[in-house]
Specification:
About 80% of the residues lie in helices and about 0% in strands. The chain starts with a helix and ends in a 9-residue tail after the last helix. It folds into 3 domains: about 60 residues; about 60 residues; about 200 residues, MetI-like (MetI-like fold), CATH 1.10.3720.10. It is mainly alpha-helical. It is extended and about 95 Å long. About 25% of the residues are buried. The chain has a two-stranded antiparallel sheet. Helix 4 packs antiparallel against helix 5 and helix 6 runs antiparallel to helix 11.
């Protein structure tokens, strides 16, 4: 059946093997085998999560330090719900304030027009007063129309800011790592020159990179106004410096391991170096390249939390640090909830990279 083949291919490419037993069950295949798959992908993980929650709830009764207890699952998820409620409440308040300011701007423009109409009929001395008043009213109208809420970022805002930061750093890392990796894979001499640098800098902690990244950003910002906030650029550069190595290494391996028969055929066909690169080397090395990007994105997401804490970039890391400074049970419940959110976002990012890797894989793509 065509739909079965398409659905199974979709579940494999997207890295969602959990869908496979349901697809096969709908297609009329052996129910016992498919029930085994459902138990493997749903029941067993659900039981493991239930055991973890039970252990967490049990531990929260006994883990106490400085009169602050470890928050249990119910308190953690209750505070998480409150964080999202605060976000929507603040957005509604901001939208209402913007609407009020726009209404105020319309009224001010109306008053300015009325003052100008009165000035047209008034004497010279009164005319100057009315025109000056109309000018003031128009300035206030422009200020009201351009009003932007200055509320502090909510938990949801910090999530999106963290995603923007990690994607910015990841893209920069990819732009650097892929060309360098291709050169390393194609030239043993270039690879020999770059390998010592890779081996030295790859294990460096993000906590060591961050002060240097901040120094670089500050030196460039001293020459003019930066396009992005300094804290954002510092976190993104730290993510870039820590996450480019897996992509670089995997790209080098992918290019260097291209089947020699492909290259021999290219020589027979008298393809130029650029044609060999675009038609043979890059397509053959894409699976390993995207596998490296997957690792890089995971590393970047882990590094980002520490970078946000130290650089005070308004992201999830700063949220965790600020809540820790409050040192109460509500704050620790919010930290526990943010840990869960960080893990879930990391899982989604990993699934996305698996999807892209499988799109460019030849033969049967790997489910994970």
């Amino acid at each position: 059946m065509k739909w079965r083949r398409i659905a199974l291919h979709f579940s494999t490419v997207t890295g969602l093997p959990i869908l496979e037993p349901f697809i096969r069950l709908m297609a009329g295949e052996d129910p016992k085998e498919q029930l085994k798959g459902i138990a493997k992908y749903i029941l067993v993980p659900a039981a493991a999560i239930a055991l973890f929650l039970a252990f967490w709830s049990f531990s929260s009764r006994y883990v106490v330090a400085n009169s602050v207890a470890l928050p249990g699952p119910s308190q953690t998820f209750r505070e998480g719900k409150q964080l999202f409620a605060e976000h929507f409440e603040q957005k509604r308040a901001d939208a209402l304030k913007v609407k009020e300011k726009r209404t105020e701007a319309i009224l001010l423009v109306r008053d300015a027009n009325r003052a100008e109409q009165q000035a047209a009929k008034a004497s010279d001395s009164q005319k100057q007063i009315l025109l000056a008043n109309a000018t003031k009213l128009r300035k206030r109208a422009v200020s009201a129309a351009n009003y932007r809420p200055s509320s502090p970022p909510t938990f949801v805002d910090q999530i999106f800011n963290s995603l923007q930061t990690v994607m910015f750093g990841f893209i920069i890392a990819t732009v650097i790592a892929v060309p360098v990796g291709i050169l390393c894979g194609m030239s043993p001499w270039f690879n020999a020159a770059i390998t010592p640098l890779i081996q030295i800098f790859k294990p460096v902690s993000p906590l060591a990179w961050l002060p240097l990244a901040m120094l670089v950003i500050l030196s460039f910002s001293s020459e003019g106004e930066p396009w992005f906030p300094i804290a954002f650029l510092t976190s993104a550069l730290t993510v870039c410096l820590c996450s480019l190595w897996p992509t670089l290494v995997n790209t080098t391996l992918g290019v260097a391991s291209v089947d020699k028969d492909y290259l021999n055929v290219a020589k027979v066909l008298k393809l130029s170096s650029m044609q060999q690169l675009c038609k043979i080397i890059l397509p053959a090395s894409l699976p390993l390249m995207f596998a490296g990007m997957r690792i890089s994105l995971g590393v970047g997401w882990m590094v980002l939390i520490a970078a946000d804490m130290l650089a005070q970039n308004p992201g999830l890391g700063k949220f965790v640090w600020d809540e820790y400074q409050n040192n109460n049970e509500i704050s620790f419940a919010r930290i526990a909830f943010s840990v869960i959110i960080i893990g879930l976002i990391g899982l989604v990012l990993d699934r996305i990279m698996i999807f892209f890797r499988n799109l460019v894989s030849f033969g049967n793509p790997a489910p994970a």
